[in-house]
Amino acid sequence: MIETSEILQTMRMIQEENFDIRTITLGINLLDCSDQDAEKCAQRVYDKVCRTADRLVKTGEDIEQELGIPIVNKRISVTPVSLICQGDPRPIARALDQAAEEMGVNFLGGYSALTQKGMTRADERLIQSIPEVLCTTQRLCSSVNVGSTRAGLNMNAIREMGEIIKKTAARSADQDGLGCAKLVVFANAVEDNPFMAGAFCGVGEPECAINVGVSGPGVVKRALAQVKGQPFDVVAETIKRTAFKITRVGQLVAREASQRLQIPFGIVDLSLAPTPARGDSVAHILTEMGLEMAGAPGTTAALALLNDAVKKGGVMASNHVGGLSGAFIPVSEDIGMIEAAAAGALTLEKLEAMTCVCSVGLDMIAIPGDTSAAAISGIIADEAAIGMVNNKTTAVRVIPAVGKKAGDRVEFGGLLGFAPVMPVNRWGNEDFIARGGRIPAPLHSLRN
Predict the structure, then answer these.
(1) I need a labelling partner for 359 at 20 to 30 A (CA). Which of 208, 215, 272, 387 fits?
(2) Close Cβ partners of 105 (under 8 Å, ≥ 6 residues apart)
């Protein structure tokens, strides 16, 4: 039961601390839409998405108005398209984007391929189409899973994704490579992630499900300001209690949406998702712990504490915590990360170390436009190796800014924000990436 004190606390979090529900994401299974005729498949996809999601946005708006809780995005995730596509995937991409527009959702995720152990012909066709698709659609997001703890790393897919990212950046050069902001390369991708650009509805999911992603970096920072100078035991307990409150609100919204839409409640993803707005930064939580700036010595330890405490508080509040759940560190979407990167306190290498203990990985990072495809593949391989060895989800969303060099600035707007272009290690790795094949799974993957 939600108590009066919790309602008052929630009102304060919304009014003073930038708290919001970042997204209600409707997952839709499209396996029954497959057809050898690409146009027929696309029509089935369009019809099912529109039929299933026709009341999603209106329901979200009603809940937002009635409960007074901001719901920033309403989104859709679908079965990875490579699993339903028997021919050209581009008609399906167009159908999905049209459906997303007509349903009024912000983004639709699932133009995806699962290639951790190898690529089917459908995977290959989809991956090759990504640059064109992401630069000719508005709301469609794409992801490719290139590794897992069980399968190892598919270095052929990793090599190809470096080239695909370069091509996507070139096709959207007039927008500072914005097409790449809709493309994520994963290791250990999860099936119920409600956050874009990596959301898709996995094959283990039900016919459809409501997944909610909460936010609240400002709430956590304000709570820590009340325990300034206290030991880390107190810091951890404070974050845990705050995450409990945040998750309770997320579960309330998820259950309301589930009941009104008559669609099963899936999970609450309690990731702390920042925005470029001041007062809504994960980096500023770290500085509240005593660091001068994100990237200073101790940053990884502070982030590890934050991520763990958020998860502990969340699972106390809900039996349905899932998705990624923890703390996101997207550079362009976090004003504190932007400032740290611009000051040189935060480097690509330090961010990689931080990803060992946070929710995802190298996220929304602008890099020089002349960065080679091999270097991008190497960045992906390093990050995927962290995920594989540590049995966690990791991801790369980097944006080569064509015509720009380290120290320049790129602008994406809205929740995607802006970012300084960060330097990339200049030493070559072409021979390493050219090897291809698979990096075997670690020994501890053999758990049976």
Answers:
(1) 208
(2) 53, 56, 57, 73, 74, 75, 76, 139
Q: From CA 358, how far away is CA 300, in angstroms rounded?
A: 9
**Residue 200's closest CA among 217, 225, 183, 216?**
183
Per DSSP bridges, beta strands 438-439 and 362-368 are unpaired
Query: Is the same domain home to 214 and 245?
Result: yes
Whole-structure pTM over 0.70, yes or no? Answer: yes
82 has pLDDT over 60: yes
Taking the chain, what is the end-to-end CA distance rounded to the nearest angstrom?
Answer: 41
- Residues 423 and 371: their CA atoms lie apart, in Å, by 9
| Domain of residue 319, residue span | 209-430
Number of domains in the chain: 2
The domain that contains 254 carries what CATH number?
Answer: 3.20.70.20
Identify the DSSP state of 251: H
Please report, for residues 128, 378, 400, the alpha-carbon distance to residue 373 in angstroms, rounded to integers and kept in the order given. 15, 9, 10
**348 and 283 both lie in a single domain:** yes
Q: pLDDT for 8-51, tens place per residue? A: 555 555 554 557 788 899 999 999 999 889 999 999 999 999 99
